[in-house]
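Title: [Solved] THH1/TOM1/TOM3 domain-containing protein 3D structure

Original question kept below for reference.
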Amino acid sequence: MTNSKVAPSENVIRESTVWWREKNVREDLAKNSFIIILNIAAILYMKINKIPLNELDCQIAYFFGRISHKVGLVIFIHILYSILPGIGHGRVLSH
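Solution (posted by the thread starter after getting help):
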């Protein structure tokens, strides 16, 4: 038996309404918004000023884009593997 004075349903409602007030969430939203705006500005700048790109430049950009995307995926999977309980470090989930 517990001696809690707050009903569990009140905790759930309170936690679900404050997720956007956390500092990390606000920082992530600001960073992502800045990156999106910067990308849009760069694309518009290239279209307005008609910066020429030859085929070799496009192939090099495509190649490095694919490589960096795959490296990012590997890093994400590694981090996910290291934080999941029971999967990382050779442990097996038990019920």
